[in-house]
Amino acid sequence: MKTKHIISAIAIAGLFSAFSAQQQIAIGQTTEKTEFRKIESEAYKPGEVLEYRLHYGVINAGTARLEVNKLDKKIAGREVYHVVGTGKSKGAFDWFFKVRDRYETFIDKDGAFPWMFVRDVNEGGYKIKQNYTFAQNKQKVITQDGNEFEAPEGIQDMLSSFYYARTIDFSNAKKGEIFTIWSFVDDEIWPLKIRYAGKEKVEVSGDTYNAMKFHPVIQTGRLFKSEDDVSVWISDDANKIPLLAQGKVMVGSVKMELTGYKGLVAPISKIDD
């Protein structure tokens, strides 16, 4: 996988056409019954909305939104969350680099793994459309072209990886410890890795939060000079939502900051004045 554009890079670091009801039912009928893992941690729920502002240098470059809903149909007899992530450029940035991104993932409520993934992005004229089916019972991923890939149990997509990461218990994490999430990205099995950097207080949009700091383990040399050039601060609470992500790129800096939230499972770690 190669990071091609700045907006995608910072969105994935901080974090990343819908299926019809008939498609959902069909998949539910044909998927074999089997036992799946159960994740005890509940870090998100239907009704959660997270909103972000993205900056490129001093330019207010765009906005992003993540929303969790409960799917009204079951897949393989299991309850599923439908998560939609959208991003768009705005203002002056929109004039020369128009971004209109939409990501969807259909996450198993109890297992925190995806059944389906949809990606429809347009970034400066560069367009990608992906439609993946995750046959978790067969440990395979099937692409929109009908190609099948062997995949490990519980394989994630680029958006569900973010939600799965929120279920991880970091309470005993040591500085420098690396957490790996195996994901299927751009027709490849890809190890998404994050390195724990300790706890800090961080100011975001005028508010101060208790946070855990991470450095995504990324490919250097193309967009970033070193791994420490990208930092992500996660709320130090049961929600574990990204508060701030920022990175130094070859030609400036990028930043994504939380601007709004609702429907969290627990109080956020904001420090009262």
UniProtKB/TrEMBL annotation:
Pfam families: DUF3108
Record's keyword terms, sorted: Signal
Keyword Signal in annotation: yes
Signal sequence annotation: 1-23
The organism's place on the tree of life at top rank: Bacteria
Protein name: DUF3108 domain-containing protein
Source organism per UniProt: Vicingus serpentipes
